[in-house]
Amino acid sequence: MFTVTALHYYAVPECEAAVLAYMGRVIAATTGVPGLHEFRAHRDTQGGALAGFSRWEHEAAFRAALAPIGSRAAERRPEWSVAPDRPLTLAGA
User: Fold this and answer.
1) What count of other Cβ atoms lies within 10 Å of the Cβ of residue 64?
2) Phi, then psi, of 36 in degrees rounded to 5
3) Taking Cα atoms as reference points, which of 92, 7, 3 lies closest to residue 55?
4) What does the domain layout of the chain look like in residue ranges?
5) CB contact set of 93 (below 8 Å; sequence gap of 6+)
6) Buried/exposed code over 34-63 (b: 16+ C-beta within 10 A; e: otherwise)
7) Contact 25, 72 (CB under 8 A)
8) Report field, pTM of the whole predicted structure over 0.85
């Protein structure tokens, strides 16, 4: 199992809805991609960040899906964030 979590640090509370909508479009773009088990959006309970959480059969499946994942990148607005998005790629230990 291979897990990817992308942390999105949004600038102001008003940006949360825009970031969530963007994340939803990215998730929709990956529907049916081979090797994807789940892809969901999560909210930091302390505020200020959202996380896109995805689980893949293996790293190669994730790498093969980078085109649909990145297909919505032009919609991502820099003014939504106070820091760069932070992707975490995790393999089982």
Assistant:
1) 14
2) -85, 125
3) 3
4) 2-91
5) none
6) ebbeebebeeeeeeebbbbebbbeeeeebe
7) yes
8) yes
**Contact of 55 with 38, CB cutoff 8 Å:** yes
- What is the second-level CATH architecture of the domain 2-91? 2-Layer Sandwich (3.30)
- Shortest CA distance to 35 belongs to which of 78, 5, 64? 64
Radius of gyration, alpha carbons of the chain: 13
Any idea which residue has 């790498």 for tokens? 63
Q: What's the whole-number average pLDDT of the chain?
A: 92
71: Cα separation from own chain's centroid? 12
* pLDDT, position 40: 96
What pLDDT is stored for residue 19 in this prediction? 92
Q: Is 28 helix (H, G, I), strand (E, B) or coil?
A: helix
